[in-house]
Amino acid sequence: MAVMTYREALNEALREEMARDPDVFLMGEEVAEYDGAYKVSKGLLAEFGEQRVVDSPISELGFTGLGVGAAMAGLRPVIEFMTFNFAFLAIDQVINSAAKMYYMSEGQFPMPIVFRGPTGAALQLSAQHSQACETYYSHAPGCKVVTPGTPADAKGLLKAAIRDNDPVAFMEGELLYNFKGEVPDDDDFVIPLGVADLKHEGGDVSIITHGKMIHVALQAAQKLEKEGIHADVLDLRTIRPLDMDAILETVQKTNRAVYLEEGWPYAGTGAQIVSMIQEEAFDHLDAPIIRVTQADVPMPYAKNLEMLAKPSANHVIEAVNRVLYR
Amino acid sequence: MAETKTKTKAKEKSAKKNDPLGQHGISGELALDLMRDMLLYRRFEEKAEEAYAIGKIGGFCHLHIGQEAAAAGSIKPLRRDDYVMSAYREHTQALAKGVHPNAVMAELYGRKDGASGGKGGSMHIFDAECRFMGGHGIVGGQVPLATGIGWKIKYKGEDTVSLVFMGDAAVNQGGFHEALNMAAVWQLPCIFVVENNEYGMGTAFSRVSRTDMATKSTPHGIPAHSVDGQDVLATYAFFRDLADKVRQGAGPQFVDLQTYRFRGHSMSDPVSGTYRSVEEVEQAKHERDPIAILRDVLMKAGLLDQATLEDMDAEARELSAEAADFADASPLPGPEALYTNVWAEINPNGRLFFDGRPESEEAS
Ligand SMILES: Cc1ncc(C[n+]2csc(CCOP(=O)(O)OP(=O)(O)O)c2C)c(N)n1
Ligand SMILES: [Mg+2]
């Protein structure tokens, strides 16, 4: 095991996959000469050259479409969005072209492409730069959505995403890039898409979550331990494909669940998961499932309002208390 | 005869060259005002820089230092009822359009008395009264919006103009070209201004475009103009005349306003690095500082002496310090502000908020 940052883990995954397959290339704004806006692609230009590590103009729709076309013709693009906030300009190509290509061509054109970059809020970046975007992508059949929360998951899942033959929205977290953790040394460390991970074990309540919210969930779980409440924290890791077996397992064990996500509640990931739990495990539930989300407003700039808007460990604890009828 | 004529013309020309104010039809008084404006912008941004360093301002903060003449020269000739819209490097443009420095600084601080109530921050300064139509954070996103404002002006038969700023990198967005095409087709009173500071973050314009900036509007049938945006007198005169033309129905215009950024892209980016050398920046500061350029003109014309300049500068510093004190004293927005202005109407029927939090119940 090596200890490295989330950023370094992503960098290693890119480097290894580019070395492994000459058809993998990286394109996006500032990825080459600037080493990436968040330095995820540091050193890759020097190692792989400018044909494979490419600075694009600020033309999100254009370079996303270019990636989709290159994938149709057989390459394996990794398209970096400086952040997913800017991918709204490109979502037409992701949904209308990438996600539907295999289906509408009746399997003639696989779409081995990764769209990656940070999603969600950082600190005081205000309304247009602080959005958790995963549900836009998971809504569309044909698109896979991966949300790693630790360095190990970042590395193993990015390698899997690049090898996958479907379009993958690979959603990182700006506040995670400096987060350190252990990563297996194995240079073929691949985590299959669609496998959740129990990040904390307890039997009283299930906190189910994804992406950087696992850290908020773990913080809540630790505080709850002190009050004698033991929580399962289930990290979905990929929200489509979805590890429904793992969800049912924890819910059947604890009979009480809270879904925590960074984005807005309406038609969010939690809405989907709560619906499926009640369909498939209704008899196991001892309380309604409660969702903890961002406040249902655009992200405000002011520090105090931003703090109120973001889901916190305290919100999670309140929700846990409610499902435990405490 | 013909020879004498040319000679007189040449004489006139060189006389004008020695008299930049006369050449541009700008009075000494106006020129001094432009000096005051630019000094304020410079000191205001330095104050913001200071406040950022001690954590009073958070998030992204993009300074306009080095580009002061571009703001003063293009906005000051406009009328109060003309519309101005911009991207995220917009603090001084807001000042130029008449937004009070206190309101701009309080917005940077995220306070209640900020131009956007503290909810927008550095990138989202709005002031409807001044017709300052915002700070927008998505590169190129504001260009179609400003075209829509042009549409409204024409629709209502008004004689105002819609002026929009964008960075050089924005012209590579599809929306830019879609907007220019529509503005041309419908002959809308829009002035599209590229603040061409040669770089989009760490990418030189020449690395992402095969053609020059001044060609970008040509395919759409919109006249292009290149202006030295470090020369505030030339910029002012140019925009004064252009705005008049557009008001009289000349149709949309495109301006390559050539300028240079003296600071990093944002407070968290380096001033120089692999993308531009320290020497390049130092040379630009030395040769292309808009404040120094105007200072030299005014001193040469005998309109300004060192003591007056120092007084003006002291005044600019004072206004900036006042703005910072005002911002500091302004309260944070109250918690109830979280749920205000999400919707213009809280309908009696139907639920609008879905987070299940008590605060939202209060609001709905
Ligand atoms: C659509 C979009 N893509 C990327 C970004 C990130 N970003 C913010 S500013 C910027 C550079 C823009 O440069 P330019 O247009 O030249 O304006 P300048 O900053 O030089 O004023 C980038 C890439 C963004 N805000 N929006
Ligand atoms: Mg620029």
Description:
The complex is a heterodimer of chains A (326) and B (364). Chain A is 37% helix and 18% strand. Chain A has 326 residues and is α/β, with parallel strands linked by helices. In chain A, the strands form three sheets. Chain A has a seven-stranded mixed β-sheet, with helices on both faces. In chain A, helix 1 packs parallel to helix 6 (151-163) and helix 3 runs parallel beside helix 4 (91-104). The longest helix of chain A is centred in the N-terminal third of the chain and has 15 residues, at 6-20. The radius of gyration of chain A is 19 Å and the shape is globular. The model of chain A has no long low-confidence stretch (mean pLDDT 98). Chain B has 364 residues and is an alpha/beta fold. Chain B is built from 14 helices and eight strands. In chain B, the strands form two sheets. Chain B has a six-stranded parallel β-sheet with strand order 2-1-3-4-8-7, with helices on both faces. In chain B, strands 5-6 form a two-stranded antiparallel sheet. In chain B, helix 3 (28-53) crosses helix 13. The chains are: A alpha/beta (326), B alpha/beta (364). At the A-B interface, helix 3 and helix 10 of A face loops of B. Residues 167-169, 197, 199-200 of chain B line the site of magnesium ion (MG).
